[in-house]
Design goal:
This protein has about 260 residues and is an alpha+beta fold. It is about 25% helix and about 30% strand. The chain has two helices and 20 strands.
């Protein structure tokens, strides 16, 4: 009887983690470039009481096995990289990525981070940086006297300066792609890090060779669907409750057995 207690406990632990994941998705519903995650589960080991195909004493063969499982466990957090909704900001330094690819930033330790957050800013030196001050890679510097900034769909950054009616190119934005983006490590601050599971990045110009194109003056929002997450939360809550009920039922059965009189 104690088997049911431990089995139901694994279900409660799994659903608690599921709710934690849903809560994180909902908390980031307005986070620029956020990609929702989904928790995946596996069943645990089974106790084999009778094997399928075993021969009984009278010579007949057992058609199906008899086994009892020991519950479930979370095994993966699957990041969903579907396209998020795009909104207009009318900010010339904002860019959204329509399609595959990540912007590259240089972190303080010299490593490279990857992000879908295209809310760029200018540093005191005119360098394009993220909201945390991380420089884009390759580095792009906007002249101090620039009066207009243009970012094309293929990543060319051009500016207008006084005395010249034509745009002058000052840099080129690049995107990075991964063969398995779900294998990227979430590092917080809207950043992802390369791992062995993600594979090495392939870089290129936007709107070329399978890379997404850029849209100036727009930002990609989170791809979290609030209604879907609320439904998932209700399902997780009911699963948690039914596992708690299984524990209560097992405890009551143990109490009845303990109260049997000889």
């Amino acid at each position: 009887m104690s088997r049911a207690l431990y089995t139901a406990a694994t279900g409660m632990i799994a659903q608690q983690m599921n709710v934690d994941n849903i809560a994180n998705n909902l908390a980031n519903v307005n986070t620029t470039g956020y990609k929702k995650s989904k928790l995946e589960f596996q069943d645990l080991l089974y106790q084999q009481i009778r094997l399928a195909g075993a021969t009984q004493a009278e010579g007949s063969q057992v058609p199906v096995e008899l086994q009892i499982g020991y519950g479930t466990r979370p095994v993966a957090t699957q990041r969903i990289f579907s396209q998020g909704a795009v909104i207009s900001t009318n900010n010339p330094l904002d860019v959204s990525i329509d399609g595959d690819g990540f912007l590259q930033v240089v972190l303080p330790d010299g490593s490279t981070g990857y992000t879908r957050d295209g809310a760029m800013k200018k540093s005191s030196q005119g360098t394009l940086v993220t909201s945390d001050g991380y420089s884009l890679q390759p580095e792009i510097t906007i002249p101090q006297d620039a009066t207009e900034i243009n970012v094309s769909v293929n990543g060319e950054v051009s500016v207008k300066v006084p005395g010249d009616p034509n745009f002058q190119q000052v840099g080129q934005l690049e995107l990075a792609r991964f063969i398995n983006p779900a294998g990227l490590k979430s590092a917080g601050r809207n950043l992802f890090m390369e791992t062995e599971a993600s594979g090495t990045p392939v870089t290129g110009a936007p709107d070329a060779e399978g890379f997404g194109k850029l849209s100036q003056g727009f930002l990609e929002l989170s791809n979290v669907e609030v209604v879907d997450e609320m439904v998932n939360m209700i399902v997780a809550q009911r699963a948690y409750e039914i596992n708690a009920r299984a524990i209560q039922t097992s405890e009551e059965m143990l109490a009845n057995a303990n109260n049997l009189k000889r």
